[in-house]
Design brief:
Number of strands: 5
Structural class: alpha/beta
Number of domains: 1
Strand order of the largest sheet: 3-2-1-4-5
Mean pLDDT: 83
CATH class: Alpha Beta
Number of helices: 5
Order of helices and strands: EHEHHEHEHE
Distance between the termini: 28 Å
Largest sheet: 5 strands, parallel
Helix content: 40-55%
Shape: globular
């Protein structure tokens, strides 16, 4: 058991695999006393921000960010109700989501990652692209959680 972890970064994409990762992060936090930093990083959906005439749709990105923040707050509350003592949450919009995730963890002095092996996309690979890149780029331990047994892949 990693007794020295104080800050766990748990990036989620709202998939079932991410929920399993959050459950694992809560369990680790319960046993170590660590704080959980719950994070959702997304690329700006340019195709949904521009109308057919090529003009920007005002407020779409800010509404999307608010919807994601609201959903992340529900996940944060679930983690607190499951026994985590401290859970911070943040939505980040970045053209480089992997870089944003790693930078966030460094900025918040996280000493571990807990994330799902696969995101919302269906994959037959051993690891999803974000999980694989975090494993490669992280300077701290990474716990990769498999999808629940009742899910494919």
């Amino acid at each position: 058991m990693p007794h020295n972890w104080q800050r766990i970064c748990c990036p989620v994409d709202f998939s079932a695999c991410s929920r399993a990762a959050l459950d694992q992060a809560v369990s680790l936090a319960f046993h170590t006393g660590a704080e959980i930093f719950l994070l959702h990083a997304m690329e700006p959906p340019v195709d949904t921000l521009v109308t057919a005439s090529g003009t920007w749709t005002p407020g779409v990105l800010s509404q999307l960010e608010q919807d994601l923040t609201d959903e992340l707050a529900r996940w944060q509350q679930a983690a607190l109700e499951a026994g985590a003592d401290h859970v911070a949450s943040e939505v980040i919009v970045s053209a480089h989501t992997l870089g944003a995730i790693v930078h966030y963890a460094i900025e918040h002095r996280c000493d571990a990652f807990v994330l799902g092996s696969h995101g919302a996309g269906n994959s037959t690979q051993v690891l999803g692209s974000v999980a694989a890149e975090v494993v490669r780029k992280a300077a701290v331990p990474v716990v990769v959680v498999n999808p629940p047994a009742n899910l494919p892949g």
